[in-house]
Design brief:
By secondary structure, this protein is α/β, with parallel strands linked by helices. The chain folds into two domains: about 190 residues, Rossmann fold, CATH 3.40.50; about 240 residues, Rossmann fold, CATH 3.40.50.2300. Helix content is about 30%, strand content about 10%. It is built from 14 helices and twelve strands. It has a seven-stranded mixed beta sheet with strand order 7-6-8-9-10-11-12, with helices on both faces. Strands 2-1-3-4-5 form a five-stranded parallel beta sheet, sandwiched between helices. α4 links the parallel β3 and β4. The longest helix has 20 residues. It is globular and about 75 Å long.
């Protein structure tokens, strides 16, 4: 199988770096914009998207399709004369890990597949390693954390941030910035929920702390028992892992019960300065909600979340508006293709496809595209720098992970210009180890800070940032 794929790869050269197109027009420009479960021609090569596009997890598949479809279109626009057209084949795993494994294996066995973009249940990908190895192709995970589960392998890569890195940012914020003493967790009863809980528990243990309460969301989605258990534990903050609908349900239910967050002083119980304040706050119970990257989503029309709601992700999550050239290039291409802004996680699947295209352009090493992908160094495909290696199959660097927040009125200069359904902005202190100096990549300083700071100089102070919430730790809301 590897030999057949190698021959195909040497017959096609893919230019995967420009987002504005340019190359010749042709059959590839007529493909896309609607999912296809099989190729339209025997002459094309394939990039497969195995994703949850139906049921409760459809938010992942929908977002991944839009990003992957654009990227395949981009690869076809940039191909040279007489090079093969690439088609995107989209298959629905319906949220079933076993079905997902079978779909990945079936796509790997075709001999035409260059790689798999995966947006299904994370636990369904590791069992497909053998099939991927036999075909000599990579699969790239867009949602969830196989790195944190220690399940990445020779042909499996990850383009989503690890829950380990997200937990470190969240815990540092809750303990050092907000100075809470009781932290609770509300997670899905799933593989991803298990990985997130472990990351949070281990990170707290490293700070000699423990979860004050940890609750699972039952299958029926009834939140009241879990919330009541966390209230009895007097948690000052709830760390949420799960789907965007789950996060919305938690925020809405807390508000309905009169427990909506109003600021850190009102959330304090164990960390309150005086016993009287602790008793009063415990009775009212207004915990701050923070979460893993799944809660950093578009809000339904007319819905508002409390200022101070926090979520972890890289600063590339702002690719829909931040002025970093790689973001702008992706954004322009996306708007031209879909006539909409990329507010969800489209960029992840877009980058995954472009990485596969980059590897195909290089040609397969020893008949294996995964080995080629391991040679990728410091490239950008619409997001941040990507580097892989034999012992590093994650495209997200830990230092690029930080915190995003719902700002209060006037707290972020860009707030008025943002789409009302996606008001999230960077929380400056969440992208800093010391709370004062930025951790973002030095190549991007000039886009965030006035005066074009030199990359070889000291890191700029967060208070000078042109974007996001730049208040100090004394901020009572953020």
């Amino acid at each position: 199988m590897r030999a057949r794929l190698g021959i195909a790869l040497f017959s096609v050269v893919l230019i995967a770096t420009g987002c504005d197109g340019g190359g010749q027009a042709g059959p590839g420009d007529l493909l896309g914009r609607s999912p296809a479960a099989s190729p339209t021609s025997t002459e094309t090569l394939v990039i497969s998207l195995v994703a949850t596009t139906s049921g409760e997890g459809a938010w992942k598949g929908d977002s991944a399709f839009r990003g992957a479809d654009l990227a395949v279109h981009q690869l076809n626009r940039d191909r040279r004369e007489n090079e093969a057209v690439i088609e995107l084949v989209t298959l629905d795993d319906a949220g079933d890990p076993r079905q997902a494994t079978e779909l990945v294996a079936s796509q790997a066995a075709t001999g035409r597949t260059l790689g798999v973009v995966y947006a299904g249940p994370p636990e369904g990908l590791p069992p497909a390693e053998q099939a991927l190895a036999q075909a000599g192709i990579p699969a790239l995970l867009c949602f969830g954390d196989l790195y944190g589960a220690r399940l990445l392998s020779e042909h499996i890569f990850q383009v989503s941030p690890s829950y380990i890195w997200e937990a470190r940012r969240l815990v540092r914020y809750l303990l050092e910035d907000r100075r809470y003493r009781t932290v609770g967790a509300l997670t899905s009863d799933s593989f991803s929920g298990q990985v997130a809980r472990r990351a949070l528990t281990e990170t707290l243990a490293g700070e000699r702390r423990r979860l004050a309460g940890a609750e699972l969301v039952p299958e029926d989605g009834e939140l009241d028992p879990a919330l009541e258990a966390l209230r009895r534990r007097k948690v000052e903050s709830i760390v949420v892992e799960g789907s965007p609908p789950l996060a919305r349900a938690v925020i809405d239910r807390l508000a309905e019960l009169g427990h909506g967050y109003r600021g850190t002083p009102a959330a304090r119980i164990a960390s309150a300065a005086k016993p009287r304040a602790a008793r009063r706050n415990a009775q009212a119970w207004r915990p701050q909600v923070v979460g893993f990257d799944g809660i950093l989503s578009v809000l339904p029309e007319g819905q508002q979340w409390p200022a101070g709601t926090v979520a972890a992700d890289t600063y590339a999550r702002g690719a829909h508006y931040l002025p970093v050239p790689s973001f702008e290039s992706f954004r322009k291409a996306y708007v031209n293709w879909w006539e909409a802004e990329p507010l969800e996680w489209e960029r992840r699947a877009y980058e995954a496809v472009m990485m596969i295209g980059w590897a195909a352009r290089q040609g397969a090493k020893q008949g294996d595209l995964a080995l080629t992908l391991e040679s990728l160094r410091e490239e950008r495909f619409g997001g941040l720098n990507v580097t892989f290696g034999p012992d590093d199959h994650t495209s997200v660097d830990e230092t690029s992970v930080g915190l995003w927040v719902i700002p209060r009125r006037g707290a972020a200069p860009e707030s008025r210009e943002l789409p009302p359904e996606f008001p999230w902005v960077p929380l400056g202190r969440g992208f800093s180890i010391d709370g004062e100096d930025t951790d973002i990549h030095s190549d991007d300083w000039k886009f965030f800070f006035p005066g074009s700071p030199r990359p070889e100089g000291p890191a700029p102070k967060l208070r000078r940032s042109l974007f996001g919430v730049t208040s100090p730790r004394s901020d009572p809301v953020h």
